[in-house]
Amino acid sequence: SIDGDAPAAMRYTEAKLAQITDELIRDIDKETVDFLPNFDNSLVEPSVLPARLPNLILNGSSGIAVGMATNIPPHNLAEVADAIVELIDSPHSEIKDLIKIVKGPDFPTGGIICGREGIREAYTSGRGLIKIRSRASIETQRQGKEAIIISEIPYQVNKANLIESIAGLVQEKKIEGISDLRDESDKEGMRIVIELKREANAQIILNQLYKHSQLEETFGVIMLALVDNRPRVLNLKQILQAYIDHRKVIVIRRTNFELKKAQDRAHILEGLKIALNNLDRIIRLIRKARDPQTAKQELIKEFSLSEKQAQAILEMQLQRLTNLEREKIDSEYLELIKKIECYKGVLASEKKVLGIIKEELLEIKKRYQDERRTEIVGEVAELEIEDLIAEEDMVITISHSGYIKRLPVDAYRRQRRGGKGVTGADVKEEDFIEHLFIASTHEYILFFTDRGRVHWLKVHEIPQASRIAKGKAIVNILGISQDEKISAFVPVKEFKEGSFVVLATSRGNIKKTDLSCFSHPRKAGIIALTLEKDDELIGAELTDGTKELVLATKLGKAIRFKESQVRNMGRAAKGVRGVRIDRKDKVIAMEVVRADATILTVTSKGFGKRTKLSQYRVQSRGGKGIINIKLTKRNGEAVGLKIVTDKDEFMLITEAGMIVRCPVRDIKTTGRNSQGVRIMRLDEKDKISSVARVVVEEEEKEEEQVNQVSQIPTETKREKAISKIKEEIKETSSKKKGAQEKEASKKEKKKKSKRGRPKKRK
């Protein structure tokens, strides 16, 4: 069934063949086909059916064998019959002439075929792709709401699975605006109702359904069949010609059978005529014979008859001796003579054989033809999802634990400085917002994994969530493998010339690739750079080719060099040496130099320091670098480096899951060759695992109070909006932190009061 329901048990099932099935086995009893023993030699079965109708192209076929597969679509009987007649009348007809008659496949489930190019390719070469869409209409229902009504679906699509997949798209927020989904199909026909919300755009949602669900499917045509026991991929003309050749063999064998049958009957009638003409002599001869066998031999000898003729005379009833019966025998004999001449004429003329095939096919067409069910329309332009989504600026937040979400800019109301702010995200206590930026719904984000692959995501594909929601895990959206993790991301507005992606690895390699090389990644991702087994990608930055870069290592070295020293390379390249390191060392960070910034370095034992950029001279790429921080047993190894300003804050995360948040300005500026100061106290076995710059800045300028920000067309306004949103998040975070401290203080006081209270005597 179209819902994929399991069939009833055999004991409950009764069925009979449709009337048209008779045309498949008609004349099977006239020696038209060869019979072979079945699997256990208990019965015989036909090697092929006589098949008056072209079943292969009418019903289609689908199957997979060893090293080959076939997928022939069903067609309309009337069109196929007319095409065969055309080929019989004009054997030199070309495929383009036949395509005018056979418009295309005709699927029993209806639907709409979009475009004729796939049909033309399939009929010309035997292979092609045909796009099939469901038949859908938009109706206005109660209270002015719109609904999408699906009345036909693509061939071989399971209706129940289709409805389930649409429901899944709604639950996953890939399609928004659907309020209800139900199946109202009955014996009258199919009817799937998709009710929409009042504000939803029905056409946009329908196009989204075409894109994301099986409402639109591609049928891959492979017209492979066994011809003379050999597999061949056939074009339209060849498959029709194969039917004609088959029918020619059937008609000739049937005619031979009927000719032999007519000749045998005429032979018997000739003997009966001899008997009627010599009736008295035959009666005397039979009366004198001792037994039937003697009588038969005497008849053969006396009248030169065959055994069959003699036997027929002996079996003749007395009523046939009347004059009327004599006339019937004469009439039947003359009729048989005409048939014999006709059969011989058919066997002697291929034209007459083709005429019979044509006549029988037109008779079948007249009896069984029906209207075409599948509509064929012109090419439908491929709708990009951006054409269906209004371009608007969204706030993208990514937490340290890898959760991402988007929400409209106007979800954050603009306030004067000193306002209460709004909740930015309800993240876990051990998580925090690490990245925040504004991007248009038509922009992209490139995600780089530690194994050197890159995945992309359009901003509108990021799940939209409320302000307090934590979002969705990036790994679940991208579908990366379990042994990979996201190590860097780059937001991109357009893949224009002059923009580059700089990548760094833990073994000190660095690579610069043109941004346009990442403009067409596949769903499974593409190679961003080739890595050695012991290497991994640790950072990615978007640049214009004129920046300066800083690489920092675990053993306290750092190197600053111009980006121009790194030549542009392809995606599959390994890159060049950025910094020379020992086997025990590795690169922990790559940063793009910003003006008026300092370098923050953090160690594994909770120490950190800030150093002015001017103390890091520009060197040539590939050197060992200079001392970044003095490492001892007291402060441990370097775990992170960030380019920061006094307005920034940073988070320290330990292996035990402890987090501390510090303003950058609280750490004094020192020289390169210093151990730094303690910025976090750790337990004996705990270590700092990573450092992150928190996206919180205070806005210096006071903005006029407005209700909301609806459009931010320029980069300057975007920056102001980001600053204001960051301020709101910071204020909310501070308020939440203060409330938590106040609650903790209350609990501590309550504990102390309980300790000081005297115990009651029993």
Structure description:
With 762 residues, this protein is α+β, with helices and mostly antiparallel strands. Mean pLDDT is 84; it is low at 413-425 and 697-715. It has 15 helices and 37 strands. Among the domains are: 1-134 and 216-267 and 347-379, Topoisomerase II, domain 5, CATH 3.90.199; 135-214, Gyrase A, domain 2 (2-Layer Sandwich); 389-443 and 457-482 and 715-757, no CATH class. It has a 4-stranded mixed beta sheet with strand order 11-6-5-14. The protein has a 4-stranded antiparallel beta sheet with strand order 7-8-10-9, with helices on one face.
Summarize the structure.
By secondary structure, the protein is α+β, with helices and mostly antiparallel strands.
What does the secondary structure layout of this molecule look like, with pairings?
Layout: H1 22-25, E1 35-37, E2 44-46, H2 55-59, E3 61-64, E4 69-72, H3 77-89, H4 95-99, E5 112-114, H5 117-125, E6 127-133, E7 135-140, E8 146-152, H6 159-171, E9 178-183, E10 192-196, H7 202-212, E11 216-222, E12 224-227, E13 230-233, H8 236-277, H9 279-288, H10 292-303, H11 307-314, H12 323-348, H13 350-368, E14 375-377, E15 393-399, E16 403-408, E17 433-440, E18 444-449, E19 453-458, E20 472-473, H14 474-478, E21 486-492, E22 500-505, E23 509-514, E24 526-527, E25 537-543, E26 548-553, E27 557-562, E28 576-577, E29 587-592, E30 598-603, E31 607-612, E32 626-627, E33 638-644, E34 649-654, E35 659-663, E36 677-678, E37 688-694, H15 715-756
Parallel strand pairs: 5-14
Antiparallel strand pairs: 1-2, 3-4, 5-6, 6-11, 7-8, 8-10, 9-10, 12-13, 15-16, 15-17, 16-20, 18-19, 18-21, 19-24, 22-23, 22-25, 23-28, 26-27, 26-29, 27-32, 30-31, 30-33, 31-36, 34-35, 34-37
Helix pairs in contact: 3-8, 3-13, 8-11, 8-12, 8-13, 9-10, 10-11, 12-13
